[in-house]
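User: quick one, sequence for these tokens?
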């Protein structure tokens, strides 16, 4: 064996070190699992999954498959968005009896746009320990490869499914200066791109990160004005799970948005919502639809 041949993973000293670390009982272990490439699971996560008394998981079939691939077999407890509150009581009782329980989602970090937050909240409220094991996160993975230079990011998660609600919500994000992070399903990715282009400036940079860490991973960056065309150019681009990153608003946009809102408020005192939005668009150069949505919100707040 040459000096460049990698040692067998099982012989690495770090595995013995991992086994000798402290793993307290009566503890809920929040364990991140791979978002695609199965090799992205951590050594510590594997050890904990081999050690716990049971694994609470979003889908027992998916978790059973993951566990089997690593030769692990532990009792599984279904813990999804429809039964979180009920299963939390069961888990708390078992933790109080001194057991170790792992909490996982189908992929990535539990409780981040995935089930688990209510369980963690209930366990903490019961005075029990919650121990996180960091690992894969689709949002952070996409950010790291985006090239969008910003010290801040704003995690939005999934947008509303209905078009009007989606555009109304996006209009509230126009002045956010942090990079915005969205999750989107494949059947809505074109609608997402259309909605972003309708609300934000065409020169805003957007990144589509598709099927991260998987065989057909694709990360594409372009101005919003080109986003729809890029998706439509290849039918495969409407397949797979997406992380969408949108560049934040420059400082001057915040100032002009504030000015547009001031004008809109003045016009609303004398005009209808439709007229106020139309006049404000002519005065400021802002998009009429976004101003109309904001005018409706202002009227509702009166």
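Assistant:
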């Amino acid at each position: 064996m040459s000096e460049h041949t990698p040692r067998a993973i099982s012989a690495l000293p770090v595995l013995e070190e991992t086994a000798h670390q402290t793993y307290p009982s009566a503890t809920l272990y929040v364990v991140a699992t791979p978002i695609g490439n199965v090799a992205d699971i951590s050594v510590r996560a594997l050890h904990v999954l081999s050690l716990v008394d049971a694994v609470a998981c979003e889908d027992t079939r998916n978790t059973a498959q993951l566990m089997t691939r690593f030769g692990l077999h532990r009792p599984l407890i279904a813990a999804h968005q429809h039964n979180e509150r009920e299963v939390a009581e069961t888990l708390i009782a078992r933790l109080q009896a001194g057991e170790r329980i792992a909490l996982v989602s189908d992929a990535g970090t539990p409780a981040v746009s995935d089930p688990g937050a209510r369980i963690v909240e209930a366990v903490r409220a019961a005075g029990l320990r919650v121990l996180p094991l960091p690992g894969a996160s689709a949002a952070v993975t996409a950010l790291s490869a985006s090239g969008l230079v910003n010290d801040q990011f704003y995690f939005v998660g999934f947008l509303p499914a209905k078009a009007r609600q989606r555009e109304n919500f996006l209009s509230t994000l126009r002045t956010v200066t942090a990079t915005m992070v969205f999750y989107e399903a494949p059947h809505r990715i074109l609608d997402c791109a259309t909605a972003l282009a309708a609300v934000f400036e065409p020169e805003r940079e957007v990144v589509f990160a598709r099927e991260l860490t998987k065989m057909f991973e694709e990360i594409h960056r372009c101005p919003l004005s080109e986003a729809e065309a890029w998706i439509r150019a290849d039918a495969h681009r409407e397949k797979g799970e997406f992380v969408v990153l949108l560049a934040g608003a420059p400082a001057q946009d915040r100032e002009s948005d504030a000015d547009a809102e001031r004008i809109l408020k003045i016009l609303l005192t004398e005009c209808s919502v439709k007229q106020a939005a139309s006049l404000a668009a002519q005065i400021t150069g802002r998009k009429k639809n976004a101003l109309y949505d904001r005018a409706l919100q202002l009227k509702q707040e009166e």
